[in-house]
Design a protein that fits this description.
Structural class: mainly alpha
Bound molecules: protoporphyrin IX containing FE
Largest sheet: none
Helix content: 55-70%
Shape: globular
């Protein structure tokens, strides 16, 4: 290895460390009030979890029909797994050190399912849609923002763990999907 390669390697390590620190800072940006809002709203979603999951998948496949082929198992049991994972995430908002490794592991498995970095965007929007339908007028703009921040934390951790060229600070969604659906 020559001197230039060593310098490039050091620069790359420093940049990746800076990215991690910035991502961590944005993760910590969720407020106590937002955590409370998200937790309280999830207790209202839980009794209608199956309906919420159905709304979620219908909307996801409207946004992007090509994602359907990634889901091989029964969509109802898949919906339950998704809700269980959301429950764990919501209840661990105060304990991110515990949640982060779980999300990181899950993200790597998702790569094997064929999930791409850009797929986290329609999934996040389908989640907001299902929450809006499920909670009705209780889904206030403040609660919506709290959920956006929560999902952004989850998606950032997962994307960072699974896609080596993902940079949370420069990433822009390029995926076209049917927003009007
Ligand atoms: C916060 C984000 C997400 C959470 C919490 C989540 C949660 C889960 C869970 C708990 C499972 C069950 C198996 C496992 O643990 O690996 C799963 C499977 C799966 N997820 Fe996700 N997921 C997320 C994002 C995504 C995204 C962005 C996609 C893209 C379309 C996706 C597609 C899938 C697929 C295709 C499977 C396998 C389904 C099958 O076997 O039929 N997930 N997910």
């Amino acid at each position: 290895m020559n001197k230039a390669q060593v310098v490039n390697g050091v620069i790359a390590s420093i940049l990746s460390l800076i990215n991690e620190l910035i991502a961590e800072a944005s993760i910590m940006a969720i407020t106590e009030q937002q955590k409370r809002l998200v937790k309280a709203s999830f207790t209202k979603v839980e009794p209608i979890a199956d309906t919420a999951a159905e709304l979620f998948y219908n909307q996801l496949f409207k946004y992007d029909p090509s994602l359907k082929k990634l889901f091989k198992s029964d969509i109802k049991s898949q919906g339950r797994k998704l809700m269980a994972a959301l429950k764990l995430a919501v209840s661990s908002l105060d304990n991110l050190e515990k949640l982060i490794p779980v999300l990181e592991k899950m993200a790597v498995t998702h790569v094997d399912y064929g999930v791409k970095v850009e797929d986290y965007t329609p999934v996040g929007n389908a989640l907001l849609y299902a929450l809006k339908q499920g909670l009705g007028a209780e889904f206030t703009p403040e609660l919506r923002n709290a959920w956006i921040d929560t999902y952004t934390i989850m998606a950032t951790v997962m994307r960072q763990a699974a896609y080596s060229d993902y940079n949370p600070n420069s990433y822009h969604n390029t995926k076209y999907y049917n927003r009007a659906a």
